[in-house]
Amino acid sequence: MRLSKMHMKTLREVPAEAEIPSHILLLRAGMIRKLVSGVYGFMPMGYRSLRKIEQIVREEMDAKGGQEILMSAIQPAELWQESGRWSVFGPEMFRLQDRNARDFCLGPTHEEIFTDIVRNEVDSYRQLPLNLYQIQTKYRDEKRPRFGLMRSREFIMKDAYSFDRDWEGLDKSYQDMYDAYTKIFERCGLTFRAVEADTGAMGGNNSHEFCALSEVGESEIAYCSQCDMAATTERAACVDEKAPAEAELPLETVYTPGTKTIEDVANFLKLDKKKTIKALLFAVSDQDYDYVAAFVRGDRELNMTKLINALGLAEHQIEFADETAMHEQTGCVGGFTGPVGLHDCKMVVDSELVEAKNMCAGACKEDHHMINVNYGRDYKGDLVLDLKLIKEGDPCPVCGAPVKMARGIEVGQVFKLGTKYSQAMGAYYKDENMQDQVLVMGCYGVGVSRTLAAVVEQHHDDKGIIWPISVAPYHVIITLVNGNDEGQKDLAEEIYGELQAAGVEVLLDDRKERPGVKFNDADLLGIPIRITVGKKAGDRVVEFKLRSESQSVDMNATTAVEEAVVMVNTHRHG
Ligand code: ATP
Ligand code: MG
């Protein structure tokens, strides 16, 4: 491709709304364009890279026996009502009606659609196992679309669904997808980690997230320094710290003026924060109770995901309570709420508090706390479980060694769904004895457009993107320094022709621009190999430079072509 003919507009300025490198660089390089918040289009260069990622995904899915199909983005409400998710999915779902007031949504995911296909078209165990997938546009009206392709409202996902006879079959299908994902992200040049994950709105009980390691990532990972435990912090189990044995002392109410935080009351009463109980208050919707009080030790943070899962709620059904409004029904007092005296709300207590003796907690009375609060004697939980958020240095739940923390971009996730959807929607097959059996399912997603952003996030410098060859829009850029010089022009054209003939994807920068502009654009675009044809063209000498390295080398033009061909082919077959 000749750059003079290519539809491409690079930007010198950093767009105001872009905060992170991938967003800034993809916009500046003219690879993506924003339409409205969270909605982007792909321009020629960006679309080429996107399709390369799609192709890698496709090859690895096919290698595991996946079969590609393409389903519609528009989905009828009825299917979602059957699975029970029409009401739980909440405001993230883009909903619409047709001219006859029939409800539809723009698919945020496709479990219902694939289950429907399979229940209608699979009859016998002979047709199993089955893995169907698609690469398709998804819609989620995200609360905070941001970071460009990273969290958008319209995005490209590869979603696969596996159907097996039984759980052993699912284990195999799941492992196949896990292995395929490992290959996909390796081939995209990502440094990543597969970690245990929460199953969220998908349901099911076993899941891994594939996280591209990055400071800008929204997934927080806890991993062990000694064993191979790795999990999102949402998911990571926490070990209860053993409390020292103590005799239970009599409950007392004490005056603690103005001590609204754990910090304040611990200082005021000269207590270790570990001797205090933190209360967190929530209002819930669509339940037979209105409020929830969660209790953790004062030095701990509450893990919202564990709380939501314990209550069986969807994320959008719970929010921090207005304590003044909550006071009337429950007796809570802002800044002074504790488990004793609180009533008419769901009490969820962290398991660590059960053995903790003589604790300090809010007295549900302005400016007062209670001391010597003991579980069992003074209060009880409706639910008692691990509600803690893991933090750096906490003991690993598997081996006890201190855990470390990292951040990552969730580029893929795999789930064992089991029979959640097949049961709800009646997806059965007949076994050898002609008996109906319920299908056992898995689902597997890759954020294709998010992966593109993750690659840029891990591969860039202050001048621009540094594409790995596998997903680069073009492999080589030939920078023609002076287009008015016949010798330079001829040599550039010769190299261009030879590389094309060898199957290398090559750009010829034949624009009437100053060399500085051309070099800057080549760096910004991140094309992995640059061949510069300049003053030494008369001697057939060119400059050969890798985008990932700072030094260029002078090379005979023929050698440069050979070198580029070898690099590209090694990558392709390597
Ligand atoms: P997140 O927790 O980031 O909102 P999710 O867990 O809801 O994502 P899944 O339902 O697991 O997402 O979707 C599969 C994949 O699709 C994710 O692993 C991610 O890579 C991608 N993805 C999800 N939401 C978005 C989005 N808003 N923009 C871009 N990619 C997304
Ligand atoms: Mg996910």
Question: What does the model show?
Answer:
With 574 residues, this protein is of the alpha+beta class. It has 3 domains: 17-188 and 420-456, BirA Bifunctional Protein, domain 2; 252-385, Alpha-Beta Complex (YbaK protein), CATH 3.90.960; 474-571, Anticodon-binding domain (Rossmann fold, 3-Layer(aba) Sandwich). Helix content is 27%, strand content 29%. The strands form 8 sheets. Strands 3, 7, 8, 9, 10, 11, 12, 21 and 24 form a 9-stranded mixed beta sheet that branches. It starts with 20 loop residues before the first helix and ends with a helix. Bound molecules: adenosine-5'-triphosphate and magnesium ion. The site of magnesium ion has 2 residues, from strand 21.
Explain briefly what this protein structure is.
This protein is of the alpha+beta class and 574 residues long.
> What is the third-level CATH name, the topology of the largest domain?
BirA Bifunctional Protein, domain 2
**CATH class label of the largest domain:** Alpha Beta
Largest sheet: 9 strands, mixed
Strand content: 25-35%
In CATH, the architecture of the largest domain is: 2-Layer Sandwich
Q: Give the C-alpha Rg.
A: 29 Å
- Attached small molecules: adenosine-5'-triphosphate, magnesium ion
Query: Could you say how many structural domains there are in total?
Result: 3
Low-confidence stretches: none
Proportion of residues in helical segments: 25-40%
Structural class: alpha+beta
Give the termini distance in whole angstroms: 26 Å
CATH homologous superfamily classification of the largest domain: Bira Bifunctional Protein, Domain 2
